[in-house]
Amino acid sequence: MSKLKIAIQKSGRLSEKSLNLLKESGINISNGTSKLRAEAKNFPIEVLFLRDDDIPQYVEQQVADIGILGKNEVLEKGKNVTIIEELGFAACRLSLAIPKGESYSGLKYFNNKSVATSYPNILSQFFANNNITAELEEIGGSVEIAPSIGLANAVCDIVSTGSTLITNGLKEVETVLKSQAVLIANKELSKEKRDILDKLLFRIKAVIRSSENKYIVLNAPNEAIDKISGILPGMKSPTVVPLAKQGWSSMHSVVKEDEFWDVIDQLRTLGAEGILVIPIEKMVL
Ligand code: PRT
Ligand code: ZN
After folding, report:
1. What are the DSSP calls for 146-195, one per residue?
2. Does residue 131 share a domain with residue 72?
3. Residues whose CB is under 5 A from ligand 2 (ion)?
């Protein structure tokens, strides 16, 4: 039986989370990332550990069938692969930044300026789309020091918290691209490999959904049940169980992590008490 070959980053920001996503999907890779390849015992998959820069090419050439890496890297490399799923981790953005003392009046600031970046393809496309003529200085790393050493007027680099820019006396002025880890695939997988991928995707989606949602349990006065159901739709509708205490019920449902605090405020206004919020292990629809 054939195996699906997945390429993940050998060592870097994505390695642990990529392995963890596989693990949460019930795929156990026992020997960590110390070797170049590993097989799962309980799923027809083989893992290749590579530099993230090489993954798009390997997936295009079918050395690997699928891979996990940053969307920024996929778009920069421009290989003929398909992005099949956003994985919800390693969120970051590719941004333009300039020395903090400079005044910024909009994108035309960059006309006739030089910009240091490790993302020349994405950036030249972005400038072309916006009719900006700038000079690009392609460098492999430590992009943020370029203005202070006189290599370029500005930088275009990956930002997550923004503290690297601040430490280097720069300010972020434009977002060129929003990125996160994505799953990419070769465009011509065999039927057999496509089937394994569908199985894997089904699991991955359940894992992602579970991390984006919380299970919520609360006590509510019976007269508030309808209103609370309206803000807690749950998967179908909330489960409502009568409490021993007359006139009260326990309600169970699911809330989205990013709506969580708003929902809690509304629930309290409606008279909900004893609110418990519980992580979800897996969520299959
Ligand atoms: O060795 P290999 O080539 O495999 O790894 P790499 O060094 O090329 O990549 P790595 O491990 O640094 O990053 C892998 C991916 O993580 C990137 O392609 C992004 O998709 C994603 N990611 C998420 C980040 C960041 N957050 C991030 N903060 N990649 C890099 N950074 C760097 C950034 O370059 C800058 O130097 O962190 C600094 C900025 O961070 P803040 O928090 O100070 O803003
Ligand atoms: Zn890399």
Report:
1. TTTTTS-SEEEEEESSSHHHHHTTEEEEEEEEEE-EEEEE-TT--HHHHH
2. no
3. 52-53
Residues 185 and 62 in one domain: yes
Q: How many domains does the chain have?
A: 3
Q: Which atom of ligand 1 is nearest to the CA of 12?
A: 11
Q: Whose CA is nearest to atom 29 of ligand 1?
A: 158
Query: What are the respective helix, strand and coil percentages of the chain, to the nearest 5?
Result: 35, 30, 35
Q: Are 155 and 143 in contact (CB under 8 A)?
A: yes
**CA of residue 53 to ligand 2 center, whole Å:** 5
Supply φ then ψ for residue 73, to 5 degrees: -70, -40
Cα 81 to Cα 75: distance, rounded to the nearest angstrom: 10
User: Which of 160, 172, 184 best tests ligand 1's pocket when mutated (most atoms within 8 Å of CB)?
Assistant: 160
Co-location of 123 and 62 in the same domain: no
Distance from residue 11's CA to the centre of ligand 2 (Å):
10
Ligand nearest to the CA of 16: 1
Indicate if 116 and 175 belong to the same structural domain: yes
Structure-token pair, residue 178? 């929003």
Provide the residue-wise pLDDT of the chain in tens; the chain has 285 residues: 789 999 999 999 999 999 999 999 999 887 655 688 999 989 999 999 999 999 999 999 999 999 999 999 999 999 999 999 999 999 999 999 999 999 999 999 999 999 999 999 999 999 999 999 999 999 999 999 999 999 999 999 999 999 999 999 999 999 999 999 999 999 999 999 999 999 999 999 999 999 999 999 999 999 999 999 999 877 788 999 999 999 999 999 999 988 889 999 999 999 999 999 999 999 998
